[in-house]
Amino acid sequence: LLDIGLDTFRPISTPEIADHEMHEERYELPPRTVEAVQGAKERGGRVIAVGTTVVRALESAAASGTLQAGAARTDLFIRPGYRVRMVDALLTNFHMPRSSLIVMLAALLPEWRRVYAHALESGYRFLSFGDAMFVPAIGGVRSSEQGT
What we know:
By secondary structure, the protein is an alpha/beta fold.
């Protein structure tokens, strides 16, 4: 559960992405979810996030290196170079330019521009009531590849 704030949808207005400040959002990760994610990882399975909010919640809850159950607040801004800890794949809709969500997608899917060009050429619908895409392998830097 992540209580989505306005910042998720607010256009980035800073010249540099790194200068954009995310507002805090509250999330809660139940113990049952932690057990399911850890079990999948232990069995060599994948964690597939359904929505960018799930990515933010899981990655925030794993910021210490271990997935933690409970309620907390996050201002995590996932951008290129981010070390993915928990999520292996993503199901999400098509997001608007200059949003924190498109920046997250750029971090997770290096070829996002090609994917979006196809979506535009094919008449896909964007935003929450639009079409969706499955990102089968997250392209961000895996924390396991970095030795952390």
